[in-house]
Design goal:
Strand content of chain A: 25-35%
Number of helices of chain A: 19
Largest interface: A-B, 47 and 47 residues
Low-confidence stretches of chain A: 1-10
Radius of gyration of chain A: 27 Å
Distance between the termini of chain A: 8 Å
Largest sheet of chain A: 10 strands, antiparallel
Oligomer: homodimer
Mean pLDDT of chain A: 95
Helix content of chain A: 25-40%
Shape of chain A: globular
């Protein structure tokens, strides 16, 4: 990092319940992390995503108003074509942006780059779900005003986002004009290097309808290729500290709705504008129905009013935090990041409602807004225990895309379903097959998420109605993808596992392990749901075949080292020259060709370690520790998905200090922009990983086969931590201190759990405090590739 | 094949010295193979390529006038970018086309699709190097004329192509107008599926200059991106059977030069036009110098005149055929294809003069006009023995691109030079790295061609001036590309060998074998040329390292089968389901995803078999036979490069009948359009393979380490064959009959050779006739994948 970057470390203020940022300068605004802040201050409910742009729109890095599922299609360019390459890509679209409120002070537009900014503060409060902003600004003409805005994307009203914007005159009277807009022609940032792709995305919307008057406005547009209609409606309420509020006036064109309010403010007087914006989209609803829905949502929100919306948001979040809060004593940055992360997980999915959970949520255009395996592998394990209905909805979305997945499997000459590596609507959009098409583990990841969800919630209806079909179709894929050898072992050749610095390997351990579980789960589910099974033409022979195949699954093993192998022969490959790789050559994929990465022992992100995490019971503690140490020495963490898994497994093998370092890195990956890519959106899966590392790593939580188990340990600088979860109808809190754990069952009937090796029964309302056994010597701290040690938050660089 | 295609079998007339085609219909012209004929009737000298279009330009599939080295640059599109992906591609450009001569008969343009075509014949005469055409046509208005044209691309005047066009009136007087053109705005056929690429290529030239008058015209243009200037000049001479010839008149614009000649022909009278066209290009010469060169070449050619050009062409080819002719008795189709093939090899390279030999020569836009390993691996082994100066020039071209290859190696973090997988000017243009970047064997293929050339010619000057540097830089590549294992073996991991249905394999046998020879050759050359070696900073340590590395090279071996393995672990992979693959699913890469091909035992084209061919001494006869049989059972021949190598090795292991079948397929791959892609140009390497199969396969010729050896055998339906070659200054002819061989040394001092295991000495002018020993039982004929047996020419399908 350059020294400029060094000073930018810890750029956000630390709050236990939020993230703040303040400045007293108004120069070099964009250079000083504007795009980064827009991502961090994003608000979302899983349906709407509003980036944390300034109210007045400028300066802005990427305006960012997204609706989950709204994308434009574009051609996929290839230098050399190949069979099965996807012809069309999809990119999330910036929809008409209702968050803009411009301010004019005595004919001078409020722009933080001009005049004098006495103070500027932003604070994302994750307890209330409100983004606060205050600014005191003196215009170039010498007029001073104070601006206080609050913004929310409602968790309780899915299509509603709202802003309250208040301007107060300082020591002199001023004329103020508020221009509240819906802006529909903002350009998309460069999401693809190919101009042909960008051509398709440059002007994606055609106008459908627009109207407005008074304080109301509606714009309806439709994407040109994907034919998705979007309606954005707004209404306004004005109040004044000095008598009757002025009337708003609205003009609307196809691309811009502008509601203006003018007032003369006496010194100390203020005017406030509340704006509610409704968002609806559909690929098939007619335009009128769509705009009616958006306007109806706005009308409801206006009736509830700003304070009502704030109250509802707080109630929603109170309930969430009561259930799910994670407290950390002794490490205020970790406390901040634990809650910020959990809030981001919630934001990404709370109201997605049978839409995907993109890798970056709705916080930016990174990865073109695509969903990967991140959702099922990292995000759903958290949602399942803290917001199970959101987990159910996300899996229902996967179920809704089964026809696309079946078509893809058929194209690949496989049976069952081949879920896409990256997509928005369920169709494969990956343009690099060695790390796309053949990352077949996505299918098992989805199956595992189904199993986990059903097991943790007991939602048998979901299993019957949707789960069985997912399990059956993914199980079928494995049977045709793999092959039997002469000794009766089943191999899965030529696939890419989680580690993207390997590709097209045979018997990736993680893939085979997950496929094995997928096959067994399909067999189990079909035995439980015989009607569903026959509806899917599952015979008893087929069930038997799944079981036989699962039992015969090959797992590569490095006998010399006594550890499982990431894939067949991996540990025999040449070791990457870590000593000879300078720091500025990371991330490696930007400085070395794939072929060189693929043929050597170098791991981008947890792969075998992810298998250790996913199936702790499949490995003895010794094997786990050896395997973790070996692969930690090869893992460069060029992916945000890596540190959380490393933290989890490090904690489990007793490497608590190392686990804390990985956890700290995971927790600040976005706040400190460790990968220098947060401008394009947050890493939602990494945020989920923070919870996972705390709960499954330090908490030692396992929920395999119905037996909930904890083995918690605190590590410095933490002095204590606690977490909550929902499991099979029970609400449970676990409070961990250095020497003891307190389990509190908040509700529900008695619950049997294991505390380390002890079986105990929890009764609702009765706290149980149990001692923590001494930690066995975990041996020396595993070392990492030179220069790739975890970046501990707060450490000097 | 459809029945329509069946009837199109043997569509060309069989001549011992040429290829003919005639028709009496003038409907459905384009459907009936127009593009195919344009490729087959292409004329070239390696500098100019003129496709065999009709003189009048229409109907035409692809006009096709190419100059070796003239290309336009275009952006390379990728759905997902990666480090080291080439940013710019190159595509051969159609230059201003000087072969067009339109005819107007009493105001009716001669067009074979109109009026009545009594007869139409084309004949490519490979003995004279002339393309003949005759047509008798009655215009819609009822006027009948006979057209006789002859076309040549001169072997003796590098930049000259010429046409003689004669029209004769039949039984009525007619007014005829001849419009002889240089056409500079003909559109390029679709060479790439990406519109962005085509946009860059659609209008590639900008005008630079044009002028003309009388019978003369010149057009100078320049490519917009690659900045290559092209000058095409023409002059004309008119003669008449009825008195003074009319004067030509020329108009020239930036895009079109048109020389017109008008005459009234009495019944039986004729007018003839001779047109000489000069072609020059340069990336750096100034425009005036360039056009002066083109015009000077034309002036010289006009002075020599048509008959003089024809005589020179004949003399050139007489000399060539005297040296190089291949005769085949008993199989007239094989006789035809043997000479046609040899002529195509000559055409591709004769006057290329330090330019590349593209995969399709200058006969079409297939592969965008790129050069691959074909040149060094298939074409140069022939040229070295029949036109060594062309081989030298091709290698000098590779030498001239060393800076590009060094840059590429550096980009890949390798030492030495990494030659491009596909290119026009030496810069890598491959857009699919698994079959491009990592096909590193190209480097050893080039090194092997250097060694072969120097050994076969004794051209020590070339070795010193250029060869050493190529050998050194390629040897350096292998040292950094490979790695040492703990047992002291040297491995080359993650490469792609010749077989494109495997990729990114470890220890590809062919690659390692060729790399081993590359290393040894570099060491040998540096010991012979110490000054050159020190100029290249080669130390004795480095030489020792090459030798040590070569000695330690790992070669995968299948102990169970007792055969070398195509790559490490290849023979353990799942076998492709050949039985379950219907005929219409070939070529496999158009119907199956790469990942599935890569992970299974299925071979697109000779790979291990190519190693058997390249290094016969490295394998015992038993191992060779077993390995050939094993891999023949896996090889689907979805590449034109495969059958010739299979023919060669089949002949060597005594599978003569199978060898004949492969040879027949190789010989007719273009004439019968077996791969349905000849429209885009001829398969020059496959043509070279015909010679190789006859000489190195049936002739048993080996020239390893300076000891020339023959072990010839005739196979039915051949009753005898003969071939000639130049070796170390000797001209040798070998005439093979069923029971005996006659060796004739045509010139030079005495030459020691081996006939089977017998050492003999040949004296110039003294024929030696020696018996052929009985063929040992070669065992059963190897079988091929179902439906992929060789397609014997003439066999009913």
């Amino acid at each position: 990092m350059s020294s400029e970057d060094d000073t930018a470390q810890h750029r956000f203020d630390v709050h236990p319940w939020g993230v703040g940022w303040s400045c007293r300068r108004n120069t070099g605004w964009e250079d000083r992390g504007q795009a980064h802040r827009e991502s961090v201050f994003s608000l979302s409910n899983g349906h709407i995503g509003w980036r944390g742009t300034l109210d007045e729109g400028d300066p802005s890095a990427a305006a960012g108003s997204y609706l989950n599922g709204v994308f434009e299609e574009h051609p996929m360019p290839y230098a050399e074509d190949g069979y099965g390459y996807p012809e069309h890509g999809q990119t999330v679209m910036h929809v008409p942006d209702g968050k803009v409120i411009r301010l004019i002070v005595d004919d001078e537009p409020f722009d933080i780059r001009t005049g004098e900014l006495a103070e500027h503060r932003q604070l994302l409060d994750v307890r209330t779900g409100i983004l606060h902003r205050t600014a005191t600004w003196t215009s170039p003409a010498g007029r001073t005003v104070t601006i206080a805005s609050q913004r929310m994307v409602s968790f309780t009203h899915r299509s509603i986002a709202a802003v309250r914007y208040e301007v107060t005159a300082a020591d002199a009277a001023v004329d103020v004009t508020l221009l509240s807009e819906i802006v529909a022609d903002e350009p998309l940032p460069e999401v693809h290097s190919d101009p042909r792709v960008m051509d398709a995305l440059r002007d994606p919307f055609e106008p459908v309808a627009h109207h407005g008057g008074g304080g109301r406005a509606t714009i309806v547009q439709r994407t040109r290729r994907s034919r998705i209609a979007v309606a954005v409606a707004a209404d306004h309420r004005v109040s004044s500290s000095q008598g009757a509020a002025p009337e708003p006036h609205t003009d609307v064109s196809a691309d811009l709705a502008r509601t203006s309010v003018r007032a003369r403010l006496d010194p100390g007087a203020s005017i406030a504008l509340v704006k509610c914006v409704g968002h609806e989209w559909s690929p098939d609803l007619d335009d009128v129905a769509l705009q009616d829905r958006a306007e109806a949502a706005v009308e409801t929100a206006m009736q509830i009013g700003w304070d009502g919306l704030v109250d509802e948001q707080r109630q929603y979040l109170d309930e969430f935090w009561t259930r799910a809060d994670v407290t950390v004593d002794g490490d205020e940055r970790l406390q901040q990041s634990a809650r910020f992360s959990l809030f981001q997980v919630l934001q990404s999915a709370a109201r997605a409602e049978v839409r995907s959970i993109p890798g970056k949520g709705l916080t930016g255009v990174g990865y073109e807004g695509h969903t990967f395996w991140d959702a099922e592998t990292f995000v759903l394990p958290v949602l399942t225990y803290i917001a199970p209905s959101a987990a159910r909805d996300a899996l229902a979305w996967r179920h809704s895309t089964l026809d696309h997945a079946r078509d893809r499997a058929e194209q690949l000459h496989l049976e069952g379903a081949a879920f896409p590596w990256r997509t928005i609507d369920g169709q494969e959009c990956s343009g690099y097959w060695p790390a796309g098409t053949v990352a077949f583990h996505i299918n098992a990841d989805i199956a595992a998420a189904v199993v986990r969800y059903v097991q943790a919630t007991g939602d048998v209806d979901f299993e019957r109605e949707k789960g069985v079909e997912i399990l059956v179709e993914t199980a079928r894929l494995w049977c045709t993808l793999g092959r039997w050898d002469d000794e009766g072992a089943f191999h899965i050749d030529g696939v890419t596992g989680p580690d993207e610095y390997s590709a097209m390997v045979d018997d990736n351990f993680f893939t085979n392990l997950m496929a094995q579980r997928n096959l067994r789960a399909a067999a189990d589910a079909c035995r439980r749901h015989r009607d569903q099974a026959s509806a899917l033409d599952v015979s008893s022979d087929e069930i038997a075949r799944w079981t036989t195949t699962a039992d015969a699954m090959a797992f590569p093993y490095d006998a010399a080292r006594g550890i499982p192998e990431q894939s067949a022969g991996f540990n025999e490959k040449e070791r990457w020259d870590f000593e000879g790789t300078p720091d500025d050559q990371y991330p490696l994929q930007k400085h070395f060709p794939y072929f060189d990465l693929y043929r050597k022992q170098v791991v981008k992100q947890a792969d075998l370690v992810l298998a250790l995490q996913a199936a702790p019971d499949a490995f003895t503690p010794d094997v786990t520790a050896r395997a973790f140490a070996y692969y930690d020495g090869l893992t460069v963490r060029d992916s945000s998905l890596s540190a959380p898994a490393q933290a989890t497994v490090a904690a489990r093998v007793g490497q608590l200090d190392l686990a804390m370092d990985y956890l700290a890195e995971a927790g600040t990956i976005d706040l400190d922009d460790l990968q220098e890519d947060v401008d394009e959106g947050l890493h939602v899966a990494a945020h989920a990983g923070v919870w996972n590392a705390l709960v499954c790593g330090f908490g030692g939580m396992r929920d395999d086969g119905g037996a909930l188990r904890f083995a918690p340990r605190v590590a410095a600088p933490m002095t204590a931590f606690s977490f909550g979860m929902l499991v099979r109808g029970h609400t449970l809190r676990v409070e961990v201190q250095h020497d003891a754990v307190t389990y509190r069952l908040m509700s529900g009937p008695a619950l049997g759990i294991r505390h380390f090796d002890e079986e105990i029964t929890l009764e609702a309302g009765v706290a149980q405090r149990l001692g923590i056994p001494a930690l066995a010597d975990p041996g020396p701290r595993p070392s990492q590739p030179r220069g790739r040690e975890p970046r501990r938050a707060g450490a000097e660089t």
